[in-house]
């Protein structure tokens, strides 16, 4: 048995990342068929990282993307 943080499947797939503005915040998102998935938040305010709507892995609402 092998334990790893890297996924076993899907390593050959190219992931498309985009830096976008979401709800007034500068974020890095991964483009998928379901929409954008939040990967990273660029902020110097520690409170921004505690927001529920800015959790990594969240599918972003299209209406809030600029």
UniProtKB/TrEMBL annotation:
Protein name: YlzJ-like protein
Species for this entry: Cellulosilyticum lentocellum (strain ATCC 49066 / DSM 5427 / NCIMB 11756 / RHM5) (Clostridium lentocellum)
Source taxon at top rank: Bacteria
Entry-linked InterPro entries: YlzJ
């Amino acid at each position: 048995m092998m334990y790893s943080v890297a996924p076993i499947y899907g390593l050959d797939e190219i992931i498309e990342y985009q830096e976008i503005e979401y709800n007034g915040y500068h974020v890095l998102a991964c483009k998928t068929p379901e929409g954008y998935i939040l990967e990273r938040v660029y902020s110097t305010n520690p409170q921004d990282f505690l927001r529920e709507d800015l959790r990594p892995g969240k599918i972003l609402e299209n209406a809030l993307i600029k």
